[in-house]
């Protein structure tokens, strides 16, 4: 009998696992079961597609279901939700929404790649259907469909970056947007100083930002704050994501930080024959060494690849994460990697921070923009622990250097003396990252 590997979920982690498995093993059956209508869609491109005025998300996948079947013998089934797992009999129950019936499918190896979902606040009225998260193409289509019938005001609750990207697209489409967050600032994955730059950019684009607001509940068309209320036609939830693991829990898999699936470094779960990869999983942080929840597209692809290689009888381990986020929001490039000051203190480091406000280009080169680097380091070892970088341009190069430096365990003095070359149109001399590392090494 040919072995059947069944993958639950049909996004980044699932596709990476399937491709890698097929590369190593030709004689197994690979079945991907995806509840959504557009398997393999690149969800990171949804905001850009919305921004460009498109309402159609059908062709966001790099390969069609037919190509995957004919070229790689990967059987991708859209519109099918796995509703139960029977680990004793090694079967799953699938609700086939196309045919309107339930079917049972046997597996030899099972991979959970069920990703994440938007967090809902635990407040009165928060289960209302007009409180939406954009996590996939279905959500995006529904949001645009509703706003087409009744374009108006959208309130964004929270300030996570993927939702702010969607908010930016809505602003570009002429919709009145108010961002309201209980946090000190938006983009709370970084220091409030970075979030303040993002808030300013949002405001410059004509949207409203209200920070430090505690929300007490929702009614149709209203968000209630402690001393005020905001009228809106729809609420977009931007409170971050949580692992989508109800099915994994039902299947008896051990859940860890933030209810994400516990795996070993080969992406094997605590149940034999069951693997997991992507945003539904815990990861190990490369700086703190702690396991936690740091979802992201690159980590999802890496973990999928690792699961696929191991299923294909190879040996691979996941590298771990720096929790890197890098994006462009309302005309501002913003990135964070490693541990920021708060994370580092919480992880037990004697953390210190240096902030340098520099320029994106050499003084002699016209058009430079302000570029701020916040470097977190350990006072005791001088090791660089994290970096946050924000500006209108020039974030990618210092981010890449910081990622390599943190991964390699470099000290502040070593980062200050790296030979990264110099291109006047692309970097000041010395660069803000070099200056920050130098200042930290001399403190
Ligand atoms: C709007 C937006 C923009 C983003 N931009 C970026 C970015 O710029 N950079 C970045 O690093 N990350 C970004 N992300 C996050 C990134 O998309 C995710 O980290 C990545 O997609 C995770 O991949 P995954 O395969 O683990 O999970 P997901 O992409 O969440 O996919 C999980 C899939 O499983 C399916 N599924 C779940 N349960 C079942 C079930 N029971 N049966 C069948 N199917 C099921 C879901 O329908 C879903 O398609 C963005 C996310 C969004 C929503």
Question: Which helices and strands, and how do they pair?
Answer:
Layout: E1 3-8, H1 12-24, E2 28-33, H2 46-51, H3 65-72, E3 74-77, E4 80-86, E5 91-96, E6 101-106, E7 109-112, E8 116-118, E9 131-132, H4 137-149, E10 153-157, H5 161-172, E11 176-181, H6 192-204, E12 208-211, E13 215-219, E14 222-225, E15 229-231, E16 234-237, E17 241-243, H7 246-250, E18 274-276, E19 283-284, E20 291-292, H8 297-311, E21 325-329, E22 332-338, H9 341-346, E23 351-359, E24 370-378, E25 384-391, H10 396-407, H11 412-416, H12 432-442
Parallel strand pairs: 1-2, 1-7, 2-3, 7-18, 9-16, 10-11, 10-16, 11-12
Antiparallel strand pairs: 4-5, 5-6, 8-17, 13-14, 14-15, 19-20, 21-22, 22-25, 23-24, 24-25
Helix pairs in contact: 1-8
Widest β-sheet, arrangement of strands: 3-2-1-7-18
Q: Helicity range of the residues? A: 25-40%
The secondary-structure class comes to alpha/beta
Number of domains: 3
- Stretches where pLDDT is under 50 for at least 5 consecutive residues are none
Tell me what the structure shows.
The protein is an alpha/beta fold. The protein has three domains: 4-35 and 79-117 and 242-311, FAD/NAD(P)-binding domain, CATH 3.50.50; 120-239, 3-Layer(bba) Sandwich (FAD/NAD(P)-binding domain); 331-442, FAD/NAD(P)-binding domain (3-Layer(bba) Sandwich). 27% of the residues lie in helices and 28% in strands. It contains twelve helices and 25 strands. The protein has helices at 12-24, 46-51, 65-72, 137-149, 161-172, 192-204, 246-250, 297-311, 341-346, 396-407, 412-416, 432-442; strands at residues 3-8, 28-33, 74-77, 80-86, 91-96, 101-106, 109-112, 116-118, 131-132, 153-157, 176-181, 208-211, 215-219, 222-225, 229-231, 234-237, 241-243, 274-276, 283-284, 291-292, 325-329, 332-338, 351-359, 370-378, 384-391. The chain has a five-stranded parallel beta sheet with strand order 3-2-1-7-18. β19 and β20 form a beta hairpin. The longest helix is centred in the C-terminal third of the chain and has 15 residues, at 297-311. It starts with a strand and ends with a helix. The mean pLDDT is 94. Bound molecules: flavin-adenine dinucleotide. Flavin-adenine dinucleotide binds next to α1, α2, β4, α5 and α8.
């Amino acid at each position: 009998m040919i072995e059947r590997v069944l993958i639950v979920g049909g996004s980044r982690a699932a596709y990476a696992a399937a491709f890698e498995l097929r590369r190593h093993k030709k004689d197994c059956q690979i079945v991907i079961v995806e509840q959504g209508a557009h398997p393999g869609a690149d969800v990171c491109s949804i905001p850009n597609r919305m921004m460009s005025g498109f309402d159609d998300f059908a062709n966001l996948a790099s390969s069609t279901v037919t190509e995957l079947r004919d070229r790689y013998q990967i059987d991708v089934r859209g519109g099918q939700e796995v509703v139960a797992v029977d680990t004793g009999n090694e079967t799953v129950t699938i609700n086939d929404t196309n045919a309107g019936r339930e079917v049972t499918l046997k597996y030899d190896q099972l991979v959970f790649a069920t990703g994440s979902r938007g967090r809902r606040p635990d407040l009165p009225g928060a289960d209302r259907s007009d409180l939406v998260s954009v996590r996939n193409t279905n959500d995006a289509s529904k949001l645009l469909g509703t706003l087409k019938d009744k374009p108006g005001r959208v309130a964004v609750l929270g300030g996570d970056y993927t939702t702010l990207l969607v908010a930016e697209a809505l602003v570009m489409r002429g919709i009145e947007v108010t961002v309201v967050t209980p946090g000190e600032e938006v983009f709370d994955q970084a220091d409030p100083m970075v979030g303040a730059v993002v808030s300013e950019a949002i405001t410059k684009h004509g949207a409203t930002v209200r920070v430090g607001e505690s929300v007490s509940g929702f009614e149709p068309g209203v968000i209630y704050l402690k001393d005020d209320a905001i009228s809106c036609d729809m609420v977009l939830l931007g409170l971050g994501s949580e692992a989508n693991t109800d099915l994994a829990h039902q299947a008896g898999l051990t859940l860890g930080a933030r209810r994400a699936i516990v795996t070993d470094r080969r992406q094997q779960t605590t149940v034999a024959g069951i693997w997991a990869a992507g945003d539904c999983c815990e990861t190990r942080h490369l700086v703190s060494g702690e396991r936690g929840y740091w979802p992201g597209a690159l980590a999802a692809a890496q973990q999928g690849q690792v699961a696929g290689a191991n299923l294909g009888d190879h040996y691979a381990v996941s590298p771990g994460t720096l929790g890197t986020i890098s994006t462009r929001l309302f005309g501002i490039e913003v990135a964070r990697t490693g541990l920021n000051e708060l994370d580092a203190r919480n992880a037990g480091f004697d953390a210190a921070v240096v902030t340098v406000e520099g320029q994106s280009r050499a003084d002699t080169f016209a058009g430079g923009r302000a570029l701020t680097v916040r470097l977190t380091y350990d006072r005791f070892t001088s090791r660089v622990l994290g970096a946050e970088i924000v500006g209108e341009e020039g974030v990618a190069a210092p981010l890449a250097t910081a990622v390599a430096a943190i991964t390699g365990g470099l000290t502040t003095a070593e980062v200050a003396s790296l030979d990264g070359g110099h291109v006047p149109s692309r970097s000041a001399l010395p660069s803000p990252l070099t200056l920050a590392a130098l200042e930290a090494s001399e403190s």
